[in-house]
Amino acid sequence: MSQSAMGTDTAAGRIPVLDIGPMLAGVPGAMENLAARIARSCEDTGFLVLANHGIPQTLADGCFAAAADFFALPDEEKLALQVGELNLGFLPTGAQVIRTSTINHNTKPNLNESFYISRDYAADDPDILAGKPFIGLNRWPSGMPGFRAATMAYYTAMQALAQRMLPAFAVALGLPPDYFAADFAEPCCTLRLIRYQPQPEAEANRFGFAPHIDTNFITFLAQSALPGLEVRTREGDWLRPPAIPGTFVVNTAEMLGRYSNDRFAPTPHRVVNASNQMRYAIPFFFGPGNDAVIKVVPSCTDAANPPKYEPLRYLDHRRKLNRTNFAHRQQGA
User: Fold this and answer.
1) Integer Cα distance of 53 and 50 in angstroms
2) Domain spans of the chain?
3) Each residue of 193-235: pLDDT tens digit?
4) Sign of CA pseudo-dihedral 38, 208, 318, 131
5) Yes or no: is domain 3-332 CATH 2.60.120.330?
6) Cα angle for residues 234, 242, 105 (degrees, 5° grid)
7) For residue 240, what is the DSSP state?
8) Single pTM value for the model
9) Which of 79, 186, 199, 298 is most enclosed, with most CB atoms within 10 A?
């Protein structure tokens, strides 16, 4: 990997910065203009940067601070909250190898530790009592009352922003703005707090996060203090998205690729923390509801371009991924 192949000199042209303020304000024509730019980017790198999104920076800062506070806990306190059958709670370093990657034979665990947060159900919620698949209680650290408040404030704001962006992605595909509304009435969202260990010296096939595609619909990533995210272009070069404080990097994921018959194919990306410091990230993953059946949309198929994918229930997709990429579930199986 050469510096010329992994820089920001061409990122500005391939990963655009989009002002979404006019669309959020309901300015006439703003949705259509934004959708056209989203379409161009999603047909190229699949990455874009959102500015004027309306999310107070204090919410992102609070979430980053909460992540740093949690990861600073002693190992025994973190391991007491280790993930189980569901991805809720702490995932220690070494517990995830991205075996589903199609661009790299990943053989080594990601060099990071994570903490997963989803919708914050009450213990007596009907879905909890019914034991619905992939629905469970978040695992909160004791003695850190501000942690839950900070992370859930960010989670709630990001889910609202993702829902407001959904019509723009529908219009970008030539669909009515409300086309995806039913599939996302009860979206599956995950906030993942990540601490990447320093990796100042390159090691063969070892990454903070190995080359992969996201498996949801779209992902929102607040700008981190340190660089690390790298995006693979269709030509095979690696680019870093524009690092503009206060913006969100957004990328397409596998389910949007399926809906669009690969018109908006997900772009592989990776993380390399080449610094001598811990690096923090707080990606927010936005996906359809568990019972949603992902089908190729009518605007992306015709007689000359038949559907590449059979209908897929999102719940079945999630089950397969969990058994493939996480060591503790393979041992259980």
Assistant:
1) 6
2) 3-332
3) 999 999 877 777 778 888 899 999 999 999 999 999 999 999 9
4) negative
5) yes
6) 40
7) P
8) 0.92
9) 199
Phi, psi of 17 (to 5 degrees): -95, 120
Q: Which long-range contacts (CB under 8 A, 24 or more apart) does 326-332 make?
A: 326/83, 326/87, 326/91, 326/95, 326/96, 327/94, 327/95, 327/96, 327/97, 327/109, 328/83, 328/95, 329/85
Tens digit of each residue's pLDDT (9 = 90 or more) over 124-144: 999 999 999 999 999 999 999
Q: Classify the C-alpha dihedral 309-312-318-323 as positive or negative.
A: negative
Q: What is the dihedral of CA 186, 182, 30, 48, to 10 degrees?
A: 60
- 45: helix, strand or coil: coil
CA distance to 73, 138, 189, 190, 241, per residue, from 218 (Å): 31, 22, 10, 11, 16
Angstrom distance (rounded) from CA 286 to CA 292: 13
Instruction: Find the Cα–Cα–Cα–Cα dihedral 66, 71, 72, 78, rounded to 10°.
Output: 120
